[in-house]
Design goal:
By secondary structure, the chain is mainly beta. The chain folds into three domains: 140 residues, P-loop containing nucleotide triphosphate hydrolases (Rossmann fold, 3-Layer(aba) Sandwich), CATH 3.40.50.300; 86 residues, Translation factors (Elongation Factor Tu (Ef-tu), domain 3), CATH 2.40.30; 319 residues, 7 Propeller (Methylamine Dehydrogenase, Chain H), CATH 2.130.10.10. The protein is 11% helix and 37% strand. It has seven helices and 39 strands. The strands form ten sheets. It has a six-stranded antiparallel β-barrel with strand order 6-7-11-9-8-12. The protein has a four-stranded antiparallel sheet with strand order 13-14-15-16, with no helix packed on it. α6 runs antiparallel to α7. The two termini are 28 Å apart. About 6% of the residues have low confidence.
């Protein structure tokens, strides 16, 4: 299910109309009652998390309820509620009653449901498509994605096979570009170069070339490479032709302070507080010379991509003045500030954008977290309530659905940190869940992993500097200023793994750069010796290490759409792997 959905252009979600079947398919999980989550609910969430935006809902087995209009409307109403909670837009989804056993409403309109007037769905806000059958929805409603056969090759690797007498086979789906037998490619981020493709095969047939849009399983494209070692290749890698490659795409002496990818993965925004410049990297065309936005008057401290590819949110790098605590909405097309957000009494330390709408969270050194609407200038929607027994600046982050956001703050005394979870639709009610991550639990985890009691004690008391949810919401990643990062259970707050900075943590406490990979499979951490470590998220074991920087890695970001990460240190502003 996951492998297929990850490369799908459209999802056809089928649900039974029979009594009891539909209810089981969309059931919510309840551990106390022993109820498992319905499979259709799981599939819908997976489709959304994996970026499948085009969806058709087929309500099957309508003959089992005698083609009841009331039953159809009941199922549609419940399904709409579920899809809205996940993040889909029901106006863009056709709902079709049909019977697979009898073939009703599959290819031709059935006469068994005279009440059914057909489906309608929006392709765009002003363009509505109508029809009756599932085939009509597939032919007329679904829009084929844009293919890019001329761009540099990008191929996420899904499987690797060693076949005796043949060699190593790498399987995957071409996302962009065109591959030919004899092409020389590279594999990143493992750093393998000059690997030759001997042949390209698809379902036991030899192909002359492979382009974008090939689907997996029967049509999965396999590439036979020479001299590729299995330990150097993993499913988090992707292959690329050696043309416009991504490497050290921005060089300079100014250290970058924050980096943020656009949700499409097309551009990377890099803030450099030292020279007050915002740099924009084109990630789909080999990097090239970055666009530079000079913000000498305001300065820049943090940056966050918005849903609009030509606009970003940023906090200024001003040391003094009445506007040093504001957040700005900037058009990078013409370097104009379109909106200004006032309210914090001290510098803004982080900005987090909702993945589903224009709301965003800002955390400040004044000890507050504010929720804003990026579409309107002015005051914040609210100042979030924090527990009374906290001290120090709070941290905030949305989960991948945008329905939940978390706020963490240090507990008074020497106990640890709170993580409070809020419903984004009812945040005024306060947190619906409160977790405590105790320092003694972190210390015990560090000691169990081999740290000395003294070092475990010191690391467990590092100040938190960032929190992030993985896409499933099951893990929360915590960055600190003491050369250590942690993952905790997203439901209970229990400590899962701790990752220590290699090469020493340095004499001055600085935030440890860390992030999840785009597929949730890895936790990526920057080290003091200039390397980047990739750990398995489930086991906490080191999977590989990337080398390229000559100084401490102080900034990391993962591309949300492609197997790509960006890192920076003092001598190289950004290195894209």
């Amino acid at each position: 299910m996951i492998t297929g959905s990850a490369t799908a252009d459209v999802g056809l979600l089928l649900v039974p109309a029979e009594k009891g079947g539909f209810e089981a398919a969309i059931a919510k999980a309840d551990a106390k009652l022993g109820v498992e989550e319905g499979q259709t609910r799981q599939h819908a969430r997976l489709l959304y998390l994996l970026g499948v935006e085009q969806l058709i809902v087929g309500i099957n087995k309508m003959d089992s309820c005698q083609w009841s209009e009331d039953r159809f409307n009941e199922i549609k109403e419940e399904f709409v509620k579920m899809l809205q909670l996940i993040g889909f837009k029901p106006k863009k989804i056709p709902f079709i009653p049909y019977s697979g056993f009898n073939g009703d409403n599959l290819v031709e309109k059935s006469e068994k449901c005279p009440w059914y007037k057909g489906w309608s769905a929006n392709i765009t806000p002003k363009k509505v498509v109508q029809g009756f059958t599932i085939v009509e929805a597939l032919n007329n409603f679904i829009q084929p994605p844009k293919r890019e056969p001329t761009l540099p090759v990008r191929l996420p690797i899904s499987n690797i096979y060693n076949i005796k007498g043949v060699g190593q086979i790498i399987c995957g789906t071409v996302e962009q570009g065109t591959l030919l037998p004899g092409d020389v490619i590279g594999i990143v981020p493992s750093g393998l170069k000059d690997k030759k493709i001997f042949s390209i095969e698809q379902h036991k047939k030899v192909l002359e070339k492979a382009g974008p849009g090939d689907s997996p399983f029967e049509k999965e494209v396999a590439y036979l490479l020479s001299k590729v070692l299995r330990e150097d290749t993993a499913t988090m890698d992707f292959s690329s032709e050696p043309g416009p490659k991504m490497g050290a795409c921005i060089r300079g002496r100014a250290t970058s302070s924050f980096a943020s990818y656009h949700e499409s993965g097309s551009h990377l925004y890099v803030a450099s507080e030292a020279d007050s410049v915002l740099r924009i990297v084109d990630c789909l065309n080999g990097g090239g010379t970055p666009q530079m936005i000079k913000l000498q008057r305001e300065g820049i401290r943090t940056v966050k991509a918005t849903h609009h590819p030509q606009c970003v949110l940023f906090s200024p790098g001003l040391k003094n003045g009445p506007k040093k605590n504001n957040v700005y909405y900037l058009s990078v097309h013409d370097n104009k500030i379109l909106r200004e957000f006032e309210g914090h009494q001290s510098v803004v330390t982080s900005i987090r954008m909702s993945p589903v709408d224009d709301s965003f969270l800002s955390s400040s050194a004044d000890g507050t977290v504010r929720l804003w609407n990026a579409g309107k200038s002015g005051n914040s929607l609210c100042e979030l309530k924090l527990p009374q027994n906290v001290e120090g600046p709070p941290l905030a982050a949305f989960d991948s659905t945008g329905l939940v956001f978390g706020i963490s703050a240090k507990m008074a005394g020497d106990e640890g940190n709170h993580i409070n979870l809020f419903d984004a639709r009812n945040y005024s009610a306060g947190p619906f869940s409160e977790m405590q991550v105790k320092r003694q639990d972190i210390e015990a985890k560090l000691r169990a992993s081999g740290s000395t009691p003294e070092r475990a004690y010191a690391l467990s008391r590092s100040e938190w500097t960032s929190i992030d949810f993985n896409k499933s919401g099951k893990q929360i990643l915590i960055g600190t200023n003491g050369g250590v990062a942690h993952t905790v259970d997203g439901y209970e707050g229990s400590v899962m793994h701790s990752f220590q900075m290699e090469g020493g943590a340095g004499s001055t406490p600085l935030p440890m750069a860390t992030c999840f990979s785009s597929d949730d499979q890895a936790v990526i951490c920057g080290n003091n010796d200039g390397t980047v470590s990739c750990y398995q998220a489930d086991s906490g074991l080191l999977a590989r290490k990337l080398r390229g920087h000559v100084d401490r890695v102080n900034c990391l970001a993962a591309n949300p759409k492609y197997a790509q990460i960006a890192s920076s240190c003092t001598n190289t502003i950004v290195w894209v792997w």
